[in-house]
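[job 4471] stage=fold_predict status=RUNNING
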Amino acid sequence: MTPPAPPLPPSVSATPPADPPAPDTRQLVALTDDTGVFQHALYATPDPNHGYCVDDNARALIAAVELHAHDPALLVGLPHERYLQFVVHAFDGPTRRFRNFMGFGRDWLEDVGSTDSQARSMWSMAVAAAGHPDPNARDLAADVYRRAFDHADGFNAARSQAFVILAIDAWLTAHPADPPAEALLTRYAEATLALFQQRATPAWCWFEPIVAYDNARVCEALLLAGQRLHRGDLVDTGLASLAWLIERQTAEGGHLSIVGNDGWLTPDRPAAKFDQQPLEAHALVDACLLAARVTRDEAWRAAAAWAFAWFHGRNDLGVGLIDPHNGGCHDGLASHGVNRNQGAESTLAYLAAVLALHKDRREATPTRGDRRRAQPS
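[job 4471] inference complete, writing C-alpha cells
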C-alpha cells in the first residue's frame, strides 16, 4: 500500500507564488544554427566541438510549441523549424529508432541513442503532433510518432517509461481514441508502480535504489497516468514520491538543494552537494504544478514557486543562474561557484519552467485556494 503523501516542509508550502518573468529566447536563438540547437556552449557562445544531440532538439521543439501557445510573436526570429527537422532526421526509418549525437560536420556519431533519448524524442513528436502551429508539421510529427510507437514497448528504465507516458498523454490530448496508446500507458504506469512497491520503504519512498537526475518526471508521469486512467493508486504514489523527493532535497535553510551529479543519493550514502543541474529544478516545477491541478491544493503550487526560486538564488550558493543580458541559464552549481557556460539543456530548462508557470496561470481553475485533497474522477 502506498503511504499517504507526507506534508511538505513549511519552507516549501509557504513560498509565495510570484509573477513569472517574461519568456526570453535570446540565448536559445544564439545556440541555434541551420542544423539545430548546439548541445554545449563556451560561456554563451555555441561550442561546435560537442555538436548536437536529439535530446536538446526535442526539448527545444517542445519549448517552441509552448512558446507559440503563450504568444505566437515569440517564434519570430527563432528558427524553430530546425528542431522538428533535427528530430525527424534523427529517426531512422528501417530500425524505427532515434539517433542522438551528431558531430558539427553533420555525421551521426551512433546508430541508436539511449532509451531516454528515444522516449524524449517520442514525447516531442507527440507534443508537436498535438500543438504545432503548422498543420503540415503536425502531420509529419504524427507520422514519426506512430512509427516510433511501434518500438516503444521494450523500455525498462523508470525515466524512459516516464517519458513514454508523457508522450502518450500528449498524444491522447489530440487523439483520444487510441486503444494501443492507452494500453501501453497503462502497462508502463503499472510497471512504474510495481517498481515503487518493490523498493519503497518508510525511509526510502522511491522507485530505484538511487535518486539521480530528472527525478520528478517519474512522479509527474504517475500523476498524469492516474488522471487519465482514473486510478487513485497511481495518483497517491505520484504524490507520496514527489513529497518525499522534495523533503530529501530541502536544505536546512529551507531552499532547494538538488542532488548533485558528483554522486547520487542512495539509502546508505548522502547525495553529493555538487554539481547541481537545472534539469531537476524544471522537472520539479512541472510535477508540482501538475500536483496542484490534480489535488486542488495550493501547497503544491507554492512548491513549484519554491523550486523555481532555485534559478534566482534560493540555492546552496545564494547566487542566481540567469544571465540578464541574454536570458540564458548557467549550467549548474559547482563547488567553485556557478558553471559559467550556458548550454542548451540548462537554457531550455529555465525557459520551459517559465513557460510552465505562465501556462498554469492561464489555465488555473476558479478553485484556486481550495486546499482539499481531490481524487481523480
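[job 4471] summary: The first strand starts at residue 41 and ends at 42.
[job 4471] exit 0
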